[in-house]
Amino acid sequence: MQDFIQALFDFSFKDFITKRLISVLYGIGVGILGLASLFLVFSDFSIGSLLGGLIFFAVATISLRIWLEVIIILFAIEENTRGLRKLKTEEQDQLHQQ
User: Residue 12: inside a domain, yes or no?
Assistant: First the structure.
């Protein structure tokens, strides 16, 4: 918890909190989509609205998951790039020391 608070107030943005919050955001999003689907079903209760609510929930949940995974991928690219840059800097330092 203390690491999260430190990352939250890290004005240099060296540590990202997004990867820590993604699962919470997904849970909140699925909950909101579930409530929206129930609203669609009960606003005009019929077989069509039940099917429409289920389809809406499935498509919206899949879309939410894809977007959140894209965000995670972008952060993974950043972490890998940072690691490669660090390795390259260490290699250059070793070459200069020789």
Answer: no
